[in-house]
Structures are given as C-alpha cells and as structure tokens.
Amino acid sequence: MQQARKRILGVDPGSRKTGFGIIESGRFNPNYLISGVIRVEKYSGAQRLKNIYQSICQIIEQYQPDVLAIEKVFVYKNPKSAITLGQARGVILCAAAMYDVPIMEYTPTQVKSTIVGKGHAGKTQVQFMVQNLLKLTEAPQEDAADALACALCHDRYMSLGIDPEVMSKGSKF
C-alpha cells in the first residue's frame, strides 16, 4: 500500500539567518519543492524575531506543510548566543503552532547521523549529501542545506517507522 505523501518543512533556526526547506516525503524518493534563507542580520532585536515569524507564517500559508522538522537547540559556550537562538526558535515554533502544524524536533547529531552517517559531519558534507539525496543540480546554501537535512531526517525516521524521541535517547538504527 502506497503511503500518502506529506510535505515536510525543515527549519534551521538562526538569529541572523534562518534556513528553510520543503520536501514531499516518499519512501524511496523525497521530492524537493523549495529552500532558502531568511536573512534578518540588518535588523535588530524584536524586529528580527518579527521578520522570522512573518516569513515562516508566509511559507506555511503558501506551501501548507503537514509537519515542521526543526533542530533542537544545543548548549552553546556563550549563554547570550543560546538565549538569542532560543528566541528565534521560539517564534518559529509559535508560527507552526498558530497554523496547527505538528512539530518534530531533532538534535544536530541526529540529523547529521541520518543524512551523512556521521553525527559530527561538516557543513560541506551535509550540503553534498542533501544535493545528492534530492538530486539537485547544485548544492544549496549552508543554512538551507541544514534545513533540508532536517526535513530529510524526519522523512527517513517516518519512512522507517522510528519514533524520534526514542532515537534521541541514544538508540541506533
């Protein structure tokens, strides 16, 4: 029985640049729809958050994703950076909640392990694998590639019937 295709919005949150990417799920062949980067570095404070929120809302309205896959925040050495990133992530989660889009969270290690095979893969490796998995003619921008990798990670987990919460506790597949 063919599983219904789902649109997955992957997001790589950032306080200056937020990557996004949308794929349609498929057990053997996820399809690329769109990706890009929301750039807010020229704004300050609350205006950045507002622009991220509005941009994510516009993407959700236009593409009607079935789920949002987002990277979990990991602990930074700089607490101020962690707080700033947490704020950006918060407005993204709020936008998804406003449109009743379910949210799935993955650690950067989960995403990289799933896409590249190594939990500490570099940005170039992620870009290369995303380009190959989605059969793109060129590598996406770094932040967009990270977002697409998050969407691909969710697609992989769901196609295998794996609960991401169980995997985040250290299990391997």
TrEMBL record:
Cofactor(s) this protein cannot do without: Mg(2+)
Principal EC category: hydrolase
Positions of Mg(2+) 2 binding: E71
Binding-site residues for Mg(2+) 1, renumbered to this chain: D12, D143
Subcellular locations according to the entry: Cytoplasm
Taxonomic superkingdom: Bacteria
Protein family per UniProt: Belongs to the RuvC family.
Name of the protein in its database record: Crossover junction endodeoxyribonuclease RuvC
Organism field: Thiomicrorhabdus marina
